[in-house]
Amino acid sequence: MTVTPNAPPLERVAGLFKSQVCEDQMGTNADTASFSTANVPADLRVPLWEEHNRHWLLNLRCRTLSEDGLQAAFRSMRLGQVQLTELVARDHVVERAPEHIRAAPSGTINLCILLAGEAFVYHRGGTSLVSAGDAVVFNPNTPHVYGFPGRFHELVVHVNHDLYTERHGSVEISEPQIIRSSDHSAFGAHLQATVGIFRKAVTGGPAPSEFLDETALDLFDLVTRGDGHSSAGYWLPAKEYIRRNVHDPALSVQQVASAVGISERHLARVFATHATSVAQTISDERIRRARDLLLDPGRESQTIGEIAALAGFTSPSHFARAFRRAYGCSAREMRRSATTDRST
After folding, report:
1. What angle do CA 188, 193, 199 make, to 5 degrees?
2. Contact at 8 Å (CB) between 294 and 307?
3. Is 169 left (phi over 0), alpha (psi -120 to 50) or beta?
4. Pairing of the two strands 144-148 and 92-96
5. How does DSSP classify residue 43?
6. Within a 10 A sphere around the Cβ of 95, how many other Cβ atoms?
7. What CATH number corresponds to the domain at position 96?
8. CB 153 within 8 A of CB 117
9. Per-residue pLDDT averaged across 180-208, rounded?
């Protein structure tokens, strides 16, 4: 990345931004981007941050009083009609004024979950304070100022406006809505149980990416509908608990129900709304885990039986039948095919 030191600020910003965008798109997923001001000259941090926001998030104005310049970073992932963004930054203010909206209208409704720190929202209806654990629902096409007096950490779920209308009806958000975790008995517990899924995904860690858009929408519905006892409120934490404990052969319906704080009967109803059962979900997750371990080049020395045990299976014959039923071939055949593909 080469930038002429004496170039005008706007040209320097354009040069840095173009280089950063190219670097973003060179990854394994062209719909994933990340940016940090850490290695950017102090005088260019704010304009470059605004440019990246304009490209990936929202057209806005940013200001900071820090003598060290803006310290901020984000990672964002686009998933069709849903986008996930994780931000970590120090004190600054962002403004979405009428001129920004006219220049670049947004097509999303945004759910901002403050994981750490404090914030304030200034809008036509007044000023609201936001604490860690709270959430803010924005219509980015309404003017507002979003400020952070110190270090903060935030997760944002962006949902396509048409999809939001389809799921919630023609409910317009004329001003930011603050959702307090203390207002809903189940909100805090379920939110904490599901945030880990998103953080792993947006930071490049292991996550069930094939279900990520569905999971993001379920969390959005849970928070925006304000119903801590909704299906989504228990469905997501239960699935995450199963995923984290699937290696345990003793994993049971009773354990899962206890972990999310409801009765087995209630949990069965929750899973039934998704046309499955707890037992079936455990079985499906075991098979997926076995497949992932089987295809891991670092585990080629392990036997099929050892792989099955790591996924929570206790019976080799049961594993063999379940694997063939799920993938149409034996575990040995899948491993042989994967090994052949890697060697060619």
Report:
1. 110
2. yes
3. left
4. antiparallel
5. G
6. 15
7. 2.60.120.10
8. yes
9. 59
Q: Is 278 part of a structural domain of the chain?
A: no
The dihedrals phi and psi of 208, each to the nearest 5 degrees, come to -75, 75
Residue 59 backbone dihedrals phi, psi, to 5 degrees = -80, 120
Its domain, for residue 139, covers 9-179
Residue type at 343 in one-letter notation: S
pLDDT, tens digit, 9 for 90 and up, residues 291-335: 999 999 889 899 999 999 999 999 999 999 999 999 999 999 999
Place of tokens 């076995």: 290
Q: Which residues have C-beta within 8 Å of that of residue 46, sequence separation ≥ 6?
A: 62, 63, 64, 69, 70
Each residue of 18-58: pLDDT tens digit? Answer: 444 434 432 334 488 889 999 899 999 999 999 999 999 99
Residue 120: its pLDDT value, please? 96
Domain count for the chain, please give it: 1
User: Does residue 193 have a pLDDT over 90?
Assistant: no
> Looking at the domain assignment, is residue 76 inside a domain?
yes
Residue 319 CA to residue 27 CA, distance in Å, equals: 36
Give me the residue label for tokens 């490049």. Answer: 204
Give percent of the chain above pLDDT 90: 50
Token pair listed for 266: 């209630």
Q: In angstroms, rounded to a whole number, what is the distance separating the alpha carbons of residues 280 and 271?
A: 10
